[in-house]
Amino acid sequence: MNENAAVQALAALAQGVRLRVFRALVGAGPEGMTPGALAAMLDVPGSTLSFHLKELTHAGLVTQERDSRHLIYRPAIARMNDLLAYLTQHCCQGVDCSPGATVKARRRTTC
């Protein structure tokens, strides 16, 4: 992932309703959800939800598939993982800073 793609994805998530929609879709997993189910779950009007789903789709964080008369929205897990990898790519200058890392290693650099 490059910087422009990361900025676009983060900008899409930097809005309360969109973040809630994305988290709900991640929770639903590969099965995804219909707009009606999302609207009911999040108590968001359909027209508002449609706008936010479009923004998330444009950022590549959500995919859309037609199943008969229904639209199914799914989280783009690979894109989400690419964003997380981009954000943590240079964490702690390569030193393991996880909670289980040795104290000596953590003293050299901290997150």
CATH fold label: Arc Repressor Mutant, subunit A
User: What characteristic shape results from the CA principal axes?
Assistant: elongated
Query: How many beta strands in the DSSP annotation?
Result: 2
How many distinct folded domains? 1
CATH-level-2 architecture? Orthogonal Bundle
Oligomer: single chain
Q: Give the strand line-up of the largest sheet.
A: 1-2
Outline the biggest β-sheet.
2 strands, antiparallel
Radius of gyration: 18 Å
Bin the strand percentage: 5-15%
Count of helical regions: 6
Low-pLDDT residue intervals, each spanning 5 or more residues: none
* Rounded mean pLDDT score: 89
**CATH class group:** Mainly Alpha
Global structural class? mainly alpha
How would you describe the overall organization of this protein?
By secondary structure, this protein is mostly helical. It has a single domain, classed as Winged helix-like DNA-binding domain superfamily/Winged helix DNA-binding domain (Arc Repressor Mutant, subunit A). The protein has 6 helices and 2 strands, in the order ααααββαα. The chain has a two-stranded antiparallel ribbon. α2 packs across α4.
